[in-house]
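A favour between colleagues. Tell me how you read the following sequence-structure pair.

===
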Amino acid sequence: MEIRSMMIDDYDGVYALWMSIKGFALRSLDDSREGVERFLKRNPGNSVVAIEDGKIVGSILCGHDGRRGCLYHVCVHEAYRMRGIGKSMVVYCMKELEKEQISKVSLIAFTVNDIGNAFWKEIGWTRREDLNYYDFVLNKKNIVNFNK
């Protein structure tokens, strides 16, 4: 298995991975090739892919605002889970963020994502009980679709 920085040339393989995961949510604009390319340019070297058997089997979009890091779309193909790929990718991202002097990282996991929530708990992340998460849609064309 190879863990390396994600490049825009990986987009098709990453998108295919995203589409293979039941319940995975994608935004029409943010998760388009153009949206991901913009994200990768703003956060060079932080995002990661895992490659095995010649295909992308895991990925994380990782970035920061200069103060806090954030992980997005953390996923491993169902056939490759429980082998340490997710943890290895998270460690990769944490090291990249530390290089940029980022000292705190957050992520959002859907409450119905039992597998993901168990993963974060297992590797030592803390579920926050002391805050609410809010968002505001600036562009209503950025439609969210959940994979079935």
Notes: The mean pLDDT is 93. DSSP finds four helices and seven strands in the chain. The chain has one domain: 2-147. Residues 2-147 form a domain with the Aminopeptidase fold (CATH 3.40.630.30).
